[in-house]
What we know:
Layout: H1 4-18, H2 21-53, H3 66-102, H4 105-112, H5 118-140, H6 145-153
Helix pairs in contact: 1-3, 1-5, 2-3, 2-5, 3-5
Amino acid sequence: MRLSRALTAAIAAGVFALITSDILALADNSGWPRLTVIAVGSVVAVVVTLVVGAGLWERPRSPRVRKQVLLFNVATTATVVVGVLALYAVLFVLALAGALLLVVAPLFAEGLGHPARLSDYLELAWLTCSLATVGGALGAGLESDDAVREAAYTYRSEQPAH
């Protein structure tokens, strides 16, 4: 599996966040603007880790190829961003499912100081997902440059096995 260290670190960070009682209060008191900034920051952290860490950013070797290199860098960055956003979406769904299954409403309400609503579970999942994504950035730093390049550039067609 490509980028398995990044995925493993992300899931481990998410599980840890869900079982940490302080996360409940942090999610409840953060508000949507702060959760948005944290989410964007976590996605940027993974993208930068992958692009810079694996040396995916190209530098023009001559002035005449500057535009071509710029287009290549934009395409590479866009590809990595799409992949990281897909990871973020999957982690959000997993975090929400984990929160709904593991964080029982009476204990959640006790920790919050008010009845737990669906919006509270969504905020918890959002913060957990962002923390898990940062964990994914740490895991991505452990990936080999070749594994990152393969994930970013390899095309795999859906061909049936013979």
